[in-house]
Write a structure and sequence with these properties.
Length: 872
């Protein structure tokens, strides 16, 4: 297999150039444009992608790539940027049953290149070349959003098996960049306000896609209107063969390309033409036209209809270039510029940059509806494509749809009704006027709360706010939201049993770094124990209760200040949320990440808030004691001294500060799942406080303030009580604890952490808790530089004896398909690809296809077993 890494670097760089780079060269003679653009690529590669290679080698590579990839496929004396993806695609892709698929041995390259540039750039190029070479006429543009590999045995097995998707966020799992782009290309006028809001956040384009030379950057909205004009012209010429209209439009375009600011003057002409073209489109969804470029018949039984117009334009432009039509030079420049602008906007939506961590991911997923008006056809398509297309393309039987509901039962019911309506057209067997049954749909719902940082940490505390915060605990505002939303869900379960019967679980999602599991403990206790009995079922003696207890999953161990912090968060989630058999942990990356690699990337030093470090060290010392981990006296004393100094620094003005007993501090930490209001009154009133909050017999919110008995509170020491009270309410404690400090990582710290990590895996195993693995998400958010380092391979080894550890109950899921450009099939394909690459010392394959397929089959079974859907 030929190594294509250098070609991949050149291809990525070429199609990720700033559009300005091409616009600056539009006044040059056509043949000089190619050389100038390639020179710009080389200039940038010297400083980034190929910075470790000497200049002579870069020049040699450039000449070779220009000769092999920029030339016409059949040897004609024609060169073009656009032949590069075409020639590259021929090395990675092929056709199977008239559908493009990736060659299994090339999956690694395919994953790397499409993570940044998408798939359609290559699939349509291959299709055009096929048409050119073989005069193939039957063309269907409705292949899957994410194509499959040619690993036939795996594909066949996945078709036969019942698949479950247990971790999928709704709108983040649609091809939302494509839908945002379609919205802009079909309705490009009057979008300035949206772009103004969009531009307020920092650019997310890949760090390596840099702008070295001095140029005047063009605002994104100007670029988008230029792209809309180019798309219309390409459509008229390449798809409609309307040379006259193209010639007419190109006159204006050429003026605009030399001075893009003129687009504001000329754009009304293009907007009018786009509106007329949209009226003549054959394709509509939910009674509205979607894309003017779909001017051909579609197979309504297939998915991905909304993507076909863009694919048709790509394909037709490629084919026009291959046929060397009259306007080939204009088509090359227009099409290449259009691709660069599209890629520039895509970089603001699809996570393809080199930054890692949840905060980076959150910026992407927060943009998913930036240019999609609420209630528009594109808004509805986001739901339909995330559910209907996902189910059909990946043969999913049980799809767990996660979304954040609302603060009232009415809002929750309306949201579920809207989602069902958008996905029932081709998916559910919905009959108006008839009762919806669970089996009518392949999807059900898990509602999640949203983690947020403590408001106190964001504010500068002064005399005016001092009094207010004296009476407010940590995460005061978020705790109020959790209460409101939990009560709303309980109310929905009691008022609308049919709707509530589709809700199977609860979750807490978003960044965990600044929000601990303790915040959600009362809400989870309150909802987990709620049960509504269907009186009709009782009268009919029917044991099928449509309102079962809610199952629990929780995002944890995904992103953290320190790996120890992530393991502690997992332990707190198990304890505070009372996780056990039937419950799940989302991600759990900290359980399987390579510890040496983790700290090497951080130069063996971390920075985190003092309170987190104090709690981490206390928890680590406690684990060392529980598991009898052997440490040197010197290192153990260092940990003890650090604990004592941090304790004094944070609790320096609290009562009995010098009493710093580790056991009492650990006991106080274990009480953080209690409602903080239980610890606000004076210590002498603790018994009355417990009775006030927990003596109610009805299913009342306050009734779940504590998970302990009155006897426990009677025996609690004042120091433990005060520690918890000060942690939540003492302003000085909170302020000092929020200050950051650095911490050096020593060898013994790492070795101790390795043991604790293994012990935590054992705890998960014996607790019967399942883990939702999301390979592509874990790879990008976890800053893993190689797919073989995915935690899943540690948590669910293909060979337990070789790994020296038992498998945990791990499933494979996708998280946010639109953010990570993935699908359930692709996740399994990538896992099988990594296993295929593993070698024995003699160079032979370590695992046969049969062994790999058995391993994949077990992962599929785990996914089905983990599903919250009630098996009947």
């Amino acid at each position: 297999m030929k190594n294509l890494n250098t070609e991949l670097v050149y291809l990525n760089r070429l199609f990720s150039l700033e559009p300005q780079k091409l616009l600056d060269k539009m006044s040059l003679p056509p043949k000089k444009i190619l050389d100038k653009v390639l020179a710009e690529v080389v200039y940038q590669l010297k400083y980034t992608g190929l910075s470790s290679i000497n200049e002579e080698s870069i020049v040699s590579w450039t000449s070779l790539i220009k000769e092999q990839y920029f030339s016409h496929p059949d040897g004609k004396d024609i060169q073009s940027f656009l032949f590069f993806p075409m020639r590259f695609a021929s090395k990675l892709l092929k056709f199977s049953d008239e559908t493009p698929v990736c060659c299994t041995e090339m999956l690694g390259y395919w994953h790397k290149i499409t993570a940044n540039l998408g798939e359609d750039l290559f699939t349509t190029a291959l299709l055009a070349e096929r048409t050119y070479n073989y005069h193939y006429k039957h063309i269907d543009f409705q292949w899957e959003k994410i194509i499959k590999s040619d690993f036939h045995s795996l594909n066949s097995m996945m078709k036969r098996k019942h698949l479950s998707e247990n971790h999928m966020h709704l709108k983040g799992s649609s091809p939302y960049f494509d839908l945002n782009w379609l919205s802009l290309m079909n309705h490009p006028q009057n979008r300035r306000e949206e772009f103004f809001k969009f531009s307020k956040s920092a650019s997310l384009k890949p760090v390596s896609i840099v702008n070295f030379s001095d140029t005047n950057n063009i605002e994104l909205y100007t670029l988008v209107r230029v792209a809309a004009s180019l798309r219309l012209a390409l459509f008229k010429l390449c798809c409609c063969e309307d040379c006259e209209k193209f010639h007419e439009l190109s006159k204006i375009i050429n003026v605009v390309l030399r001075n893009p600011s003129l687009i504001s003057i000329y754009f009304s002409r293009f907007a009018s033409e786009i509106s007329v073209a949209r009226l003549h489109s054959n394709y509509q969804e939910f009674g509205e036209k979607v894309d003017y470029a779909v001017n051909f018949a579609l197979n309504t039984g297939k998915a991905s209809s909304a993507l076909t117009g863009e694919r048709k334009i790509y394909y037709a432009a490629y084919l026009y270039l291959l046929n060397n039509g009259k306007y080939s030079q204009e088509v090359q420049n227009y099409f290449f510029l259009y691709l660069l602008i599209s890629q520039r906007i895509s970089n603001e939506f699809i996570q393809s940059n080199e930054r890692y961590g949840f905060k980076n991911f959150e910026k992407y997923q927060n943009r998913k509806t930036a240019f999609i008006p609420t209630g528009s056809v594109y808004d509805k398509l986001m739901i339909k494509m995330a559910i209907v297309d996902n189910v059909n393309e990946n043969k999913i039987d049980k799809l767990e749809v996660r979304f954040h509901g609302g603060n009232s039962p009415e809002l929750l019911a309306d949201a579920i009704k809207c989602i069902d309506n958008c996905s029932s057209k081709e998916h559910g067997r919905y009959i108006p006027g008839k009762r919806k049954q669970k089996q009518d749909f392949s999807h059900f719902y898990v509602l999640h709360f949203i983690k947020k940082p403590c408001t106190f940490c964001k504010q500068k505390i002064d005399q005016k706010t001092m009094i207010k915060w004296r009476f407010r605990c940590r995460h005061y505002e978020l705790r109020k939201n959790v209460k409101t939303e939990a009560i709303a869900l309980k109310s929905l379960r009691e008022k609308s049993m049919i709707t509530a019967s589709r809700i199977f679980g609860i979750d807490a999602a978003a960044s965990e770094v600044t929000c601990r599991p303790e915040v959600f403990a009362q809400g989870f206790r309150y909802l987990r124990n709620h049960r509504k009995i269907n009186k009709i079922s009782i009268m009919k003696r029917n044991n099928d209760d449509p309102i079962p207890n809610l199952k629990v999953t929780y995002h944890v161990g995904e992103d953290f200040y320190d790996l120890l912090d992530g393991l502690r968060a997992i332990d707190e989630a198990i304890s505070f949320l009372q996780l056990g058999y039937g419950d799940r942990i989302g991600h759990g990356v900290a359980l399987g990440i390579d510890i040496n690699d983790y700290y090497e990337k951080r130069n063996h030093e971390i920075a985190l808030p003092k309170q987190n470090l104090l709690d981490n060290i206390a928890w680590m010392l406690h684990q060392i004691k529980i598991w009898n981990i052997i440490l040197s006296n010197t290192f153990y004393q260092k940990l003890k001294d650090l604990f004592n100094s941090l304790y004094r620094a944070i609790f320096n003005d609290s009562p009995d500060c010098l009493k710093c007993d580790l056991n009492e501090y650990i006991q106080a930490m274990s009480l953080r799942d209690e409602n903080p209001e239980m610890f606000f009154p004076p210590f002498k009133d603790k018994d009355k406080t417990w009775q006030k909050f927990n003596s109610l017999k009805s299913h009342n919110w306050n009734n779940y303030s504590s998970s302990r008995t009155l006897e426990f509170y009677k025996n609690i020491t004042q120091h433990v009580y005060d520690l918890n009270s000060n942690y939540h309410y003492n302003i000085s404690v909170k302020s000092e604890g929020n200050k950051y400090m650095n911490f050096n990582i020593e060898a013994e710290y790492i070795e101790s952490l390795k043991i604790i990590q293994k012990k935590m895996r054992h705890k998960i195993e014996i607790s019967g808790i399942a883990i939702e693995s999301n390979p592509s998400s874990n790879y990008l958010i976890g800053n893993l530089d190689d797919l073989s380092k995915l935690p899943l391979f540690q948590l669910f080894p293909i060979d337990e004896k070789e790994a020296g550890s038992n498998r945990l109950n791990v499933s494979v899921n996708t998280d946010d398909q639109g953010v990570f450009y993935t699908s359930l099939n692709k996740e399994y394909s990538l896992l099988s690809y990594v296993q295929k690459q593993k070698k024995n010392p003699d160079g032979s394959r370590k695992y046969s296809d049969d062994v790999i397929l058995q391993w994949i089959e077990r992962l599929i079974k785990n996914g089905n077993d983990q599903s919250f859907w009630k098996n009947t």
